[in-house]
Amino acid sequence: MREKRFNLASRVIHWAIAFAIMFLLLTVFLRLGWMNKDAMGEILRQALLKKGIQLSETDAAAIGKEIRKPMWRYHVITGYVLIGLYLIRMGITFIQGIAFKNPFSKQTSPKDKFKSWLYIIFYVLFATSLFTGFMVVNGPKETKEIMEAIHVKSLYYMLSFIVLHIGGVLLADIGGEPGIVSKMIRGNFNIKNEDVAQGPDHND
């Protein structure tokens, strides 16, 4: 029987969410770095100053923000896409059951409990990030500041989870669960661990 986490629906949603998150992080890094409104505004202000045109730092930053706006629009659009993907992910989990071991079960090892709690915490914080992002764009002005503050903090847990997730998968692939990376790409074709570790028997 194929494992739930390696079936087609789970793999498609997994990679769709992964690529969407990576794109979101790219837009964040652009906003903080190359497309920072103050940095772009200062470049514009200095260029105009050479032509004898005076521009205040505040106005220059406002123009820089307008220049950045089309790029940031993709951040918002991708956020809506992620909300849809998250709901689909929850729907798949409701239909197929959870793809990780029950952390409350006495039969679950401490290692598996840690992994299970990591996923649970991620999905709770992920939902918080999506909700606060939605409220920043669509919520009342009175809540925008607090929602934005919480949303910005989500960058740190997102990066932490990505590092832990990739590190854990790579360790599992070379350790107790060889072939897991291949399964997440191609699916579970009932490859036995010993077959992966030893390779094919050329005497067959």
Automatic annotation (TrEMBL):
The keyword Cell membrane applies. It is a multi-pass membrane protein. The keyword NAD does not apply. It comes from the Bacteria. SUPFAM superfamilies: Transmembrane di-heme cytochromes. It is found in: Cell membrane. Keywords: Cell membrane, Membrane, Transmembrane, Transmembrane helix. The chain crosses the membrane at residues 12-34, 74-95, 116-136, 156-176. Its main location: membrane. It holds the Pfam family Ni_hydr_CYTB. Signal peptide: none annotated. GO terms for molecular function: electron transfer activity; heme binding. Residues 5-187 form the Cytochrome b561 bacterial/Ni-hydrogenase domain. GO terms for biological process: respiratory electron transport chain. GO terms for cellular component: plasma membrane. PANTHER family: BLL0597 PROTEIN, NI/FE-HYDROGENASE 1 B-TYPE CYTOCHROME SUBUNIT. This is Cytochrome b/b6 domain-containing protein. It comes from Pedobacter alluvionis.
